Amino acid sequence: MSALLDIDAAESGYGGGRVLNGVSLRIREGEILALIGRNGVGKTTLLRTLIGLVPLAAGSIRLDGREVGHDKPYARARQGIGYVPQGREIFGALTVAENLQAGAQANRGRAAAMRDKVTGYFPVLKAKLQHKAGTMSGGEQQQLAIARALIGAPKILLLDEPSEGIQPSIVGLIGETLLKIARETGVGVLLVEQDMGMVESMATRCCVMDKGRIVDTLTRGQLADEALIRQHLAL
């Protein structure tokens, strides 16, 4: 099966310094690929490079066969990359409905149908469409952030630490929902996550990152090997 997202030898960084040093990975339709590693090894930089917030210095990023590595962030969103940043970054002063409307700008033609679809996946949002997003719990805000990215009908969804600051029961609910979404819609997911329980329950494969490179790829079976995971996270 061909890759939905194909990253080849990607390099990027900040202020002339390199953080990514030749990252290559591929995500297929309906696949959830986890990315783990110590803090500061380039995981968030990779996501920000994929969405266009950090310029690609070398290499290529192809989405469904099309090179997007030098497109503007809004153009990548329209091409089919959805992004949920660390810390959620929802619009707290806007209602849930208005947050979803903002996300729908990436694909306005499908906005109405997609709103029904994403609120079906996250029923708490349907019940709170007219509530100010800033009044909701952290778990509800995370569900809104994911729904806001999904309403644009992306081909690839980038998630940066979705479990951060959320109680375990809601983390489990979000994980189950993302699995269902990947199965039913075929969206590919790139998940940066430190909660290994979430990674183990969701990921099809898991890439290990160190010093701006992918240094290993683990199967689902290997994710249950605690000694191996400890070794990688202590690189």
Describe this structure in words.
With 235 residues, the chain is of the alpha/beta class. It has one domain (3-89, 153-233): Rossmann fold, CATH 3.40.50.300. Helices cover 36% and strands 28% of the residues. It is built from nine helices and ten strands. The chain has helices at 43-51, 73-79, 96-103, 111-121, 123-126, 138-150, 168-185, 196-202, 226-233, and strands at residues 3-14, 17-28, 32-36, 56-63, 66-67, 81-84, 156-160, 188-192, 205-210, 213-219. It has a six-stranded mixed beta sheet with strand order 6-7-8-3-9-10, sandwiched between helices. The protein has a four-stranded antiparallel beta sheet with strand order 2-1-4-5, covered by helices on one side. A hairpin with a 2-residue loop joins strand 9 (205-210) and strand 10. Helix 3 runs parallel beside helix 6. The two termini are 32 Å apart. The mean pLDDT is 93.
Helix and strand arrangement:
Elements: E1 3-14, E2 17-28, E3 32-36, H1 43-51, E4 56-63, E5 66-67, H2 73-79, E6 81-84, H3 96-103, H4 111-121, H5 123-126, H6 138-150, E7 156-160, H7 168-185, E8 188-192, H8 196-202, E9 205-210, E10 213-219, H9 226-233
Parallel strand pairs: 3-8, 3-9, 6-7, 7-8
Antiparallel strand pairs: 1-2, 1-4, 4-5, 9-10
Helix pairs in contact: 3-6
Q: What is the helix fraction of residues, given as a range?
A: 25-40%
The CATH homologous superfamily is named P-loop containing nucleotide triphosphate hydrolases
User: Which oligomeric state applies?
Assistant: single chain
Q: How many helices?
A: 9
Q: What spatial form do the alpha-carbon principal axes imply?
A: globular
User: What fold name stands as the CATH topology?
Assistant: Rossmann fold
